[in-house]
Amino acid sequence: MKPQPRTGTPLSSFVHPSETTDQRVTTTGPQYRLHARWHREREQIILALRNGSSARCQRRARRIDLCCFSPEIRTAGDGRPFLVLNCCRDRLCPRCQVQRGKHVARRITGLILGFNSPRFMTLTLAHKGESLDAMMDRLYIAFRDLRKLPVWRRHVKGGVFACQVTRNTKAGEWHAHLHIIVDGVYFPQTQLKAAWLQVTGDSEIVDIRPVPDRAKIAGYVGDYVSRPNEVAGWGWAAIEEFAEAMHGRRLVHTFGSAHGVKVEDEADTREPGGGTFVCDSLSLLKWRAKNDAAAVATIMCLAAQGPEWAKVLVDKSDAWEHGGAVPSDTAVMDAVAQARVIYLRPETWVPPPPAPPAARQDILIPVAPNDRRRRRRAG
Ligand SMILES: [Zn+2]
How many CA atoms lie within 13 A of 129 on its CB side? Predict the structure, then answer.
């Protein structure tokens, strides 16, 4: 039977929150499952930003709140389905930040594989009781001055750095560190310490060590880029200060011989675009909640496509099993083609032209030759 578009309550009640009010949105199933690992941290960050005084903080709170609100199902040119999660890509969104950290680690691994003799350095700025914004300015100026010193130039060709901000919540103090992977020659710790003190005037905490495992050290730096758990524990006022002070700053960057290599590339975090829109996952899930047979079948088929699909479409309380069987490509493409017809949002769905009235011969029931003979005898 030809699939029929669904209309009625579930779809007509579907309105994206960005189209309606400025209230805190209700967490959707896909959102809850995709962000489950960072649920507490995410809530704290959203509340802190919502409570913030600037309009920019409010906007960011809203954007993070809507991250993965209703992932879209789309198909590529070959008819295969793919997911577009509609991520917020905000630096304070724990999930997006972890994804960004992975991309950064991958790019840094590629970069430092080309280093002759990598070394891992940590430079710490002494706390002065200043605002985080002022501290960040001081840190970046000190590092720029350090790179100009002859002692630095003699030992370091280039490298990549990542900035990490920590907070002593008891004392209410900010601490800023630079983690740097440098390419160069043996740099005595005492000389580095003296150089760092010279440019900062008050800081002499430095650490330098060889890098035995390049992928591992890139992983560390990727982790410094994404530390949602720490941020969430700072309290609302500190989260707001952090959000404002770090806005627009480069947190990972290259210098010297590595200058110009992109390690934090926006293109990495951009989701695949294009393709053909099939439907919103929320539309599909709302029909599944009504036990719509076609929705259940489509979800079972798509959920077997990978862990991300399962997170978007299947709730743990759902008792169904697909027995581990992976549906065939044809079955998946059929399910998607069917979903495209029946679950597309009604406001965007263009109904097909009405079918021509059935011709008379179509509705006559064909009679078998034996039946005709029987009828003649009976008549
Ligand atoms: Zn996000």
Answer: 0
- pTM summary value: 0.79
Mean pLDDT, to the nearest integer, of 220-231?
Answer: 76
- In tens, the pLDDT along 75-84 reads 888 888 999 9
Cβ < 5 A residues, ion ligand 1: 67, 87-88, 93, 96
The reported pLDDT for the residue numbered 262 is 82
How far, in Å, is the centroid of ligand 1 from the Cα of 106? 20
Q: pLDDT, tens digit, for every residue of 22-70? A: 566 788 999 999 999 999 999 999 999 999 889 999 999 999 999 999 8
Count of domains forming the chain: 2
Evaluate whether residue 166 is within a structural domain.
yes
Q: Could you tell me the distance, in angstroms and rounded to a whole number, from the CA of residue 94 to the centre of ligand 1?
A: 7
- Give residue 42 CA to ligand 1 midpoint distance, Å: 9
Residues 108 and 183 both lie in one domain: yes
The CA 36 to ligand 1 mean position distance, Å, reads 12
Q: Quick one: pLDDT at residue 22?
A: 55
- Say how many Å lie between the CA of residue 136 and the centre of ligand 1: 24
**Cβ-based neighbour number of residue 234 at 10 Å:** 21
From the CA of 363, how far away is ligand 1's center (Å)?
56
Are residues 52 and 126 located together in one domain of the fold? no
Same structural domain, 57 and 125:
no
Segments forming the whole domain that contains residue 68: 9-88+271-342
Tell me the CA–centroid distance for residue 152 and ligand 1, in Å: 39
Domain shared by 120 and 178, yes or no: yes
- 22 with 155, same domain: the answer is no
